[in-house]
Amino acid sequence: MTAGTPADAVLAELAALREADLPTQGGRTLAYVYDSGLPDVDTLAARAHALAASANGLDPTAFPSLLRMENDLVGAAARLLGGDAGTAGSVTSGGTESCLLAVLAAREGRREIAEPSMVVPTTAHAAFRKAAHLFGVRAVDVPVDPVTFRADPRAMAEAIDDTTVLVVAGAPSYAHGVVDPVPEIAVAAAERGVRLHVDACIGGWVLPYLRRAGADVPAFDFTVAGVTSISVDLHKYAYCPKGVSVLLHAGPDLRRGQYFASADWPGYPMLNTTLQSTRSGGPLAAAWAVLRHIGDDGYARLALDARAATAWIRDGVEVIDGLRVLGEPQSTLLAVALDGEPGFDLFTVADEMAERGWYVQPQFAHGDSPANLHLTITAANRGNEPALLAALEAAVAAARDAGPVEVDAGVEALLAALDPDRLTAEEFAGLLAAARLAGDGGLPSRMAEINALLAVAPARLRERLLLEFLGLLYRPSAGA
Questions:
Q1: What residues have CB less than 8 Å from 116, skipping those under 6 apart?
Q2: What pLDDT sits at residue 479?
Q3: How does pLDDT run across 99-109, given as a tens digit for each residue?
Q4: Whose CA is closest to 161, among 136, 132, 129, 194?
Q5: By Cβ atoms counted within 10 A, which residue in 75, 255, 414, 474 is the most buried?
Q6: Are 344 and 404 within 8 A, CB to CB?
Q7: Nearest alpha-carbon partner for 335 in 303, 310, 354
Q8: φ and ψ at 306, to 5 degrees?
Q9: Where are the bilayer-spanning segments (predicted)?
Q10: How many other C-beta atoms lie within 10 A of the C-beta of residue 447?
Q11: What is the mean pLDDT of residues 116-126?
Q12: How would you label 92-129 residue by residue, b for 16+ Cβ within 10 Å and e otherwise?
C-alpha cells in the first residue's frame, strides 16, 4: 500500500502532463478541438460539469434534472434543424455514437431483412464503417464526384436495393467540407421507402446560422422531405465540452430501434436510450449551460466569424505556390492538397507547421482525393488568419528545401509482402526496425517518414499497422 498524494500535488502533476498536449485554445489546433474564443465559456462549462458530474443519466426518474436538460438540448437542436413537435432525439457521447445509433435504429426498423445494407458515399465518416462492423449492416460504397467530392445522387439511387435499410449523406463531409445534395438523395431514398440519415455532426450547429445570414447553404435538414434522422455534435460548433452530440429522428417511431430494454434478470430493469448505460451528467450539464449562455445571437456571431476566417484562409492558401484547396467547401473545413508536382511533401509541411506551433491533420489519398491537410477553422481563428498563413508559407518553404520524403525500396517491398489478416508481432517489429522506427513505443517529434510509409500501404494494411502501433502506445504503467 502507498500513501495518497495531496490534492495540490496531484493537480500540479496533471498540469505538467498537459503541457505536452496540443493546445485546446487559441485556434492553433486545426482538428480535434473547437474553440469559441470566448474567455468565459470554458469556465462556465467546467463549473456546470462539476455540479452534475456525480449524477447518473442511467435513470431519468432518479435524476430528473438530467432529463430536463436532455430534453432542452434535443429541443434546441430540433428547432435549429427544421424539426417540429413530432421530432424525437437523444443526447449521445459524440458523433460516432450518434451515427452508430442511426444505423442501429434503421436496422431494427427492418428486421425482416436478413442481410441489411446501407448506401454511403465514399466520403462518409468512418463511424458508418464502425457501425457496419458492429451491427452487421453491409456498407455499399458509392463513388463521389471526382472534382467536387459531393455525393452523386444518381449513383446513390442506383445503389439502393431491397436490402437497403439506410442511405447516408453529409452536411458537410469531414474530409472536404462540402455538403452533399441532400434533396436529390432524399427523393431517391423516399421512393424506395428507405430512411435517410444526414451526418451534420460538423455542420449542424453552424450551417443554419450561415443560412440565416444570407449565405448560400444547400438544404440538408428536416425541411427536406425524406430526411429521417440527423446527427449534430454540440462539442463541435456549439463549442461545448467533449462528450455531447444529439441524434434527432423525424418521429419517435423511428427512434425506437435504438433503445434497449432487459427485464430478464434478477436485477433492476435495464433501460437504455443510447449505447451507454451509466452516463455522467457532467457533459450534459456543461452543454446545457453553454447553449443557454451563448444563445442564438451569440452562435450567429460565432458562425460568421468562423466562416469569415475560413474564407480568408482559403484565399491565402490559393496564392501559396504549390498548394490548392480541394472541392468547393461550403462550411468551415478546408482540405489543402499539392498543386501539381511542386517538389515537396505535404507530410513535411505538417511537421513544419507543428514546429511553428500549429497542428494540421494529414489525410491520406483515397480514390480521387489526393493526400491533403485538413483544417478545421473555428471562431477563434478570426483575427489570427495572417499568423496561420505566414506559418503555412514558411512551412512550405522549409518542406521545399527538404524535398519529398522517399520510402526505402526495401521497406516498400517488405510492406507489399505483408498480409494484413495474418500480420504477426514479429513481422510488425521487423517492419519498424527496417524503417528505423523501432523504439520504446512513444511518438516521434516528426511524423513525415511514418506518414509516407503508411501512404504506400493499402488501406487494409494501413489499418492493421496502425492498430498494432496503437497497442504499443496503450500499455499499463509501472505505477501511478
A1: 106, 107, 110, 136, 137, 138, 163, 164, 165
A2: 65
A3: 999 999 999 99
A4: 194
A5: 255
A6: yes
A7: 310
A8: -65, -40
A9: none
A10: 16
A11: 98
A12: bbbbbbbbbbbbbbbbbbbeeeeebbbbbbbbbbebbe
Listed in sequence order, the residues at least 6 apart from 210 whose beta carbon sits closer than 8 Å to its beta carbon are: 217, 303, 304, 307, 331
Grid coordinates representing 407 are 520510402
Buried b or exposed e, range 29-57, using 16+ CB within 10 angstroms: bbbebbbbbbeebbebbeebbeebeebeb
How far, in Å, CA of 84 to CA of 458, rounded?
A: 45
Beta bridge partners, 119, equal 140, 167
In angstroms, rounded to a whole number, what is the distance separating the alpha carbons of residues 314 and 310?
A: 6
State the average pLDDT for the chain. Answer: 95
pLDDT at 441 over 90: no
Amino acid at 161: D
* Burial class for 22, CB neighbours closer than 10 Å (0-12, 13-18, 19+): middle
How far is 313 from 207, CA to CA, in rounded Å?
Answer: 18
CA distance 225 to 147: 27
pLDDT in tens, 216-246: 999 999 999 999 999 999 999 999 999 999 9
Asked whether the bond before 172 is cis by omega within 30 degrees of 0, the reply is yes
Please tell me whether residue 246 adopts helix, strand or coil conformation: strand
Q: What is the grid cell recorded at 157?
A: 439511387
Q: pLDDT of 28-77, one tens digit each?
A: 999 999 999 998 999 999 999 999 999 999 999 999 999 999 999 999 99
Higher pLDDT, 470 or 314: 314
Q: For position 188, what pLDDT does the model report?
A: 97
| The three cell numbers locating residue 209 | 446560422
Q: What mean pLDDT do residues 8-32 have?
A: 95
What domains appear along the chain, each with residue ranges and CATH number?
A: 45-290 (3.40.640.10), 297-402 (3.90.1150.10), 409-473 (no CATH)
